[in-house]
Specification:
With about 140 residues, this protein is an alpha+beta fold. The chain contains three helices and five strands. The radius of gyration is 20 Å and the shape is globular.
Length: about 140
């Protein structure tokens, strides 16, 4: 999804991400987590991207888990600041760090960066292994 680097775009991306995760069959908790993470990543990108540019958002399943990527043309490398309850801003990436399985930033060859977050998803336990019974013998109880 490509959106203008404007605060008004955050809701559109959040709703789109929620629909994607729901469509993939994720639990409501995972959907809510994805919506929160993508909101923080897009807000950060919009805040630091040059004026009149776009932000690209990608969502996909990777071997590490469901991944959110936000590309912007802004310079610099985002870092998580320590959480401060009195701060009015600057807590977004600290929250991403706490909630995501992992997150990071990759510089883009043409300038800018891709900031990503991988979600932790609940694993579904495998069904118990069933040993086949040998013909003529009944399992002991």
């Amino acid at each position: 999804m490509v959106v203008p680097a404007e605060p008004e775009a955050v809701k559109r991306v959040r709703d789109w991400a929620g629909a994607w995760f729901s469509g993939q069959g994720h639990t409501p908790d995972v959907v809510d987590t994805a919506r929160l993470l993508v909101s923080e990543l897009v807000t950060n990108a919009c805040r630091h991207a040059p004026p009149d540019t776009n932000v690209l958002v990608r969502i996909y399943n990777s071997t590490a888990g469901p991944t959110l990527e936000v590309w912007d043309r802004g310079d610099g490398r985002p870092t998580a600041k320590p959480l401060d309850e009195t701060s009015q801003s600057g807590r977004g990436l600290a929250m991403v760090e706490l909630i995501a399985e992992t997150w990071g930033v990759t510089p883009l060859a043409g300038g800018g960066k891709a900031t990503y977050a991988v979600l932790a998803t609940p694993s579904v336990p495998a069904p118990p292994a069933v040993r086949p019974s040998v013909t003529g013998h009944k399992p002991r109880r």
